[in-house]
Amino acid sequence: MSHLESLERKLREMSENGNSAPMNEDSGAENSSGDANSNSGNGVMCDLKIPRKFLRVLGYDGRTNDLVYCKPLSTTEDEEISVDSDSSTTNNVDARQKCLVYFGGDMQDFPEIMEQHKEHRDRGYICWNLEATAALLQKQFPTYNIVVVRPSRIQIMTFSCFDNFVNSASNTGVPDHVITHGSLQHLELLLKNLSERVEKSQQQDQILAKQIAHVSKEEEEESEVSSTTVDESLTTNGESLVVEEPEKPFNPHLDRSRISLVGFSKGCVVLNQLMYEFHYLKTLTPDDTAMSPFVSSIEDMYWLDGGHNGGKNTWITSRSLIETLCRQNIRVHVHMTPYQLTDERRPWIRKEERTFCDWLKRFNAPLKRYVHFENEPASLQQHFRLLTEFGNAEKTMEPEGNIEDSQIGTESTSYTGVLSMQ
């Protein structure tokens, strides 16, 4: 087998299997698999608009997380910028890239791992795998870079444990919130190092593309085969293997982006921990401003049907922590379903969520709250379906008004921003 045939075979296998150019263990980048994430027919260069895995991305204090990344589907005219530009040098905040970071719930993992669990496979939960979720988020937020954080520990292939963000000694990921766990530092470094890995992966893709083009040219000359383009020479069994003109590698500078944080179900424990860390930085160590630029870049936080296996503290109800959050001018979004709100086995979820939202309104925070599928019976599939709806619902609702102290946590509190989607 000639060198060109070997490269052609490698390219064909990558195309069929949905894998990018071979990576060494240090780079750890892999392309997503599955129908929704297939990258076949796109040439050597991996299409970063398709979810792509980056394994063991280094963060704070030696911690690592596996991540899924995909670039924006589009940019609006007023947001179009050079992704290689140093966003820290611009005075126009809106000129920065936007990044949505997602922390998922129990069961959500890579598809090949979920496939090994009989219940996840037989009951259809595999469709909510982390790569498919990245694609869902990308469709609802097409101008955002999407980053999905895989938990550092998933017990019995089910219970998500975000140990790198939240202290937990539980086998089910029940949080033990502390005043600081280095979570903000970890998130910032993850985004910084992921950005570098994205750039490096493109460079490695280009190397393979150039190797194929170079070997093809040499074998053309040796065999005196007339060919005007590289594309025509890369044929096997009558099928063309296209080597497209590669785009210039880019670094998205995700750590400098305008950041939105999304927690779904168990993933909300990460957002709750960040509230402790906001309070630590802004109230207990106000002279330490090292993290201030990164904290200021967080513009939105989404709590989606928050819940965990503990008996309390599903939602933050501390006035001081919520007041500190409000001072950050972060837009808060709360999306709920009957799966959590009507669970009589865990009535504290409903009560804590109400108190959380009441305090936000008391401090006149920019809050949007929605109840989806309100007239449907609660189910786990309904819980997951929220991932397909919340982004689109955001476009139709207005922030809620404030309330008085005496109304906080009472059952008589009315929510004007309730949305029932059928």
From TrEMBL:
CC terms in the record's Gene Ontology section: mitochondrion
Keywords: Coiled coil
Ranges of compositional bias, category Low complexity: 29-42, 225-236
Superkingdom of the source species: Eukaryota
KW Cell membrane (keyword) present: no
Region (Disordered): 1-42, 218-237, 403-422
Compositionally biased residues, Polar residues: 404-422
One Pfam short name: C2orf69
InterPro entries in the cross-refs: C2orf69_mit
Coiled coil stretches, renumbered: 184-211
Keyword Coiled coil included in the entry's annotation: yes
Listed Basic and acidic residues bias regions: 1-15
PANTHER family: MITOCHONDRIAL PROTEIN C2ORF69 (PTHR31296:SF1), UPF0565 PROTEIN C2ORF69 (PTHR31296)
Name the UniProt record assigns to this protein: Uncharacterized protein
Organism whose genome encodes this protein: Folsomia candida
